[in-house]
Amino acid sequence: MIMSSSPGGSHSSGSSTAQISISGSDEQQMKSDLRQRKRKVSNRESARRSRMRKQNHLDGLLTQASQISKDNSCILANLNVIRQMCINVEGENSVLRAQMDELTHRLNSLNEIIGCLNQIDNYGNAVVDQMMMMKTMNGDDLFNPWNLMYLNQSVCAGNMVMY
């Protein structure tokens, strides 16, 4: 039998050399298995962190969507309030326009009366006739207290001035 030397300085037989080389192969296999297990653990940890990041991102998006929905509801409520205010203002504008038209009509009537009064001669007959004619033409009640602006002006009746 041939003896060979081992790295440890002892002599062993040929069958022990084969055993050492097998155990070297086992050691490499064990190192490979260890690296593979570490890689699997690392991959699992990386996948877990990735899932956590995705979940956190999803939670953030859901929170953001909820906040946007609340903001949208507030904006819609404000819009409805503003629409109602606009409708109210439009109604008030319609009333004011109608009042303006009525007051414009009254002002025109009063200006006509003043014009007629300024055109009369010294005899009072023309004033009374013109006032009665305007009353029947316009359908306005000239003797309504709101239409009596002409009372502050003098009316000539013959040679007598009346207030």
Span between termini: 162 Å
Overall mean pLDDT: 76
Structural class: mainly alpha
| Strands ordered across the widest β-sheet | 1-2
Instruction: Summarize the main sheet.
Output: 2 strands, antiparallel
In words, what does this structure look like?
The structure is a single chain. This protein has helices spanning 14-119, 125-138, and strands at residues 4-5, 11-12, 155-157, 160-162. The chain is mainly α. It has a domain at 16-96. It has a two-stranded antiparallel ribbon with strand order 1-2. The chain is rod-shaped and about 140 Å long.
List strands and helices in order, with pairings.
Elements: E1 4-5, E2 11-12, H1 14-119, H2 125-138, E3 155-157, E4 160-162
Antiparallel strand pairs: 1-2, 3-4
Helix pairs in contact: 1-2
Short structural summary:
This protein is mainly alpha-helical and 163 residues long.
List keywords for this structure.
mainly alpha; two-stranded antiparallel sheet; 6% strand; 163 residues; two-stranded antiparallel ribbon; 2 helices
